[in-house]
Write a structure and sequence with these properties.
Layout (H helix, E strand, L loop, with lengths): L2 E6 L7 H15 L3 E6 L11 H7 L6 H12 L2 E7 L7 H10 L6 E4 L2 E4 L5 E7 L4 H5 L3 H15 L4 E8 L7 H16 L2
Parallel strand pairs: 1-2, 1-3, 3-6, 6-7
Antiparallel strand pairs: 4-5
Helix pairs in contact: 1-7
The protein binds flavin mononucleotide.
The site of flavin mononucleotide (FMN) has 16 residues, from helix 1.
Length: about 190
């Protein structure tokens, strides 16, 4: 059974992201997958890379909270990220998680003049909600920009393969039926990871 890690970044349990998280967990339980969830707001994850930590970043000395997160990532084969779009990107708490946890020496390293991804073999899955409609953001290239910065700039850079990056558009404005269809899509994707 694939070892699966959920990285969840939403402050509100009544959000659509929370419903996505519950759908993912339901399938993982049904299929008896080994999984952990890191709920960044519930953990009150400290997302700012301050100077002390920044200096450690280049010396491979890690604070305890970061070492713990790296253990979860090192263990996982599939990593499922669930978050809303905030300012055409991920929420700051998740960006800060990447800043602090995906360190030089853990997520990538420099070999001569090149970088090498150290998370090779791991599979990434992203479920990202938006307020805007697909028509509104896709035509302004904001969706392709988000695919590139996340899937290429973070995941591929660190050696991971993105198997899923699913946007759910306009979620505050769609009806219950449309939401159920979306949650069905989430379950179908997780069934076959
Ligand atoms: C701080 C903030 C910034 C936002 N920026 C965007 C944005 O850039 N593009 C967008 O489509 N929606 C934006 N939204 C709307 C959210 O993406 C939307 O409400 C959310 O995806 C709905 O899903 P949820 O119920 O899981 O929160 C923003 C919302 C907040 C609170």
């Amino acid at each position: 059974m694939p070892k699966t890690l959920i990285i969840y970044a939403h402050p509100n349990e009544r959000s659509f992201c929370a419903a996505i998280k519950e759908s993912v967990i339901q399938v993982l339980r049904e299929r008896k997958y080994d999984f952990y969830i890191r709920d960044l707001y519930a953990l009150q994850f400290q997302p700012v890379l301050y100077e002390d930590n920044y200096l450690q970043f280049y010396q491979n000395k890690l604070p305890e909270d970061i070492a713990a997160e790296q253990e979860y990532l090192a263990w996982a084969e599939h990593i499922i990220f669930i978050y809303p779009t905030w300012w055409n990107s991920m929420p700051a708490i998740l960006k800060g998680y990447i800043d602090r946890v995906f360190t030089n020496g853990f997520a990538f390293r420099f070999v001569n003049d090149k970088t090498e991804g150290l998370l090779e073999g791991k599979k990434a899955h992203v479920f990202q909600t938006t307020g805007h409609s697909q028509e509104f953001i896709a035509t302004k290239q904001l969706v392709s920009a988000m695919y590139d910065t996340t899937d290429l700039g973070i995941f591929r850079f660190t050696g991971m393969e993105t198997l899923t990056h699913k946007f759910f558009y306009s979620v505050p404005y769609v009806d219950k039926k449309a939401r159920e269809i979306m949650l069905g899509e989430v379950k179908d994707i997780i069934q076959i990871i």
